[in-house]
Amino acid sequence: MFVRAHDPVMHSEYLPPGTDGPVLVACDGASASSEALFNAGRLAIRALGGPLQVLGVCEPTPGVAAGMDVLLVPAELDEARRALMVEDVRRAISISAAGDPAWDVDVQLGSPARLLATEAFRRHASVIVMGIGRHNPLDRLFGTETTLATLRESRVPVLAVCPSFPTTPTHAVVGLDFSAASVQSARLAARLLAPNGRLTLVHVRPRFEHPSADWQAWDADYGRTLPPLFDQVRTQLDPPEGVTVDTVTVRGDPASSLLSFAQQAQCDLIAVGTQRHSFLERLMVGSVATRVLRTARCGVLAVPSAA
């Protein structure tokens, strides 16, 4: 969330692949999360346009070690599991109040994170809608980690929702570091809000307190750069009519401060940009996005950088 004094805000010309493309909803047919997923999918197509497509991923059954050999699982068994997931997904759609039997449903065999990211890019999807578990340790371990792994692979924004995610969010908090990805996350978050919604841009500035005159001068200079940077971002957002935009600056650790503010504000959605310029950063996604996704008590929108 930090930006150096005098750094110009990065003009966000970046749009996710296929902004008018399909909304891709990742679903395995589990009834516990389907309602929130389908509601979030409907919200996304209203805001971004395009059709809704449901994609399930069935992991292939691993071979069984037998001494020095590996016994391969017959392909027919995995195909049967895939067909069963298709039935589960279609059933989940049919019993959900937010579901539509006309939606396109596809289930493929493969690694969930990689296949979802690959298919989203190939289909020019505007966003991937996924679930995050918050009810018990297994939900947090498997549901959230799969979503995080998808974010590591994806070039397309990921909207992660918990079962309590509202049909129409009214307040979104954006972690703004003035990068192109964070500005784009603010743009997308604004479009997902209700007509009378509120978008809060939160910048976390460093808490490197030091008694030296040089530090105090730098800190004062830093503070003077923020109002014009916020103004530049406001001009780029073009929020829907009725959506109000306000700005907040806090001090501290970026992830902890953002999460604390979002919890106090009781927001429906946290939006962040992710920066991945190296192999190590690609694995880590970015500590802010990772911690927000693992800890937030609301929906999370993560927008990858164009790099």
Describe, in plain words, how this protein is organized in 3D.
The protein folds into two domains: about 1-15 and about 165-305, Rossmann fold (3-Layer(aba) Sandwich), CATH 3.40.50; about 15-155, 3-Layer(aba) Sandwich (Rossmann fold), CATH 3.40.50. It is α/β, with parallel strands linked by helices. The longest helix has 25 residues, at about 215-235. It is globular and about 70 Å long. Helix content is about 45%, strand content about 20%. The chain is built from nine helices and twelve strands. Helix 3 (about 110-120) crosses helix 4. The protein has a ten-stranded mixed sheet with strand order 5-2-1-6-7-12-11-8-9-10, with helices on both faces. This is Universal stress protein. Belongs to the universal stress protein A family. It holds the Pfam family Usp.
Largest sheet: 10 strands, mixed
CATH superfamily of the largest domain: HUPs
Mean pLDDT figure: 84
Order of helices and strands: EHEEEHEHEHEEHEHEHEHHE
In the predicted model, the low-confidence regions spanning at least 5 consecutive residues are: 2-8, 10-18, 135-142
Shape: globular
Order of strands, widest sheet? 5-2-1-6-7-12-11-8-9-10
Instruction: Name the structural class.
Output: alpha/beta
What oligomeric arrangement do these chains adopt? single chain
Helix content range:
40-55%
The DSSP helix count reads 9
Domain UspA: 22-161, 171-304
Organism: Gemmatimonas groenlandica
Family: Belongs to the universal stress protein A family.
InterPro entries: Universal_stress_UspA (IPR006015), UspA (IPR006016)
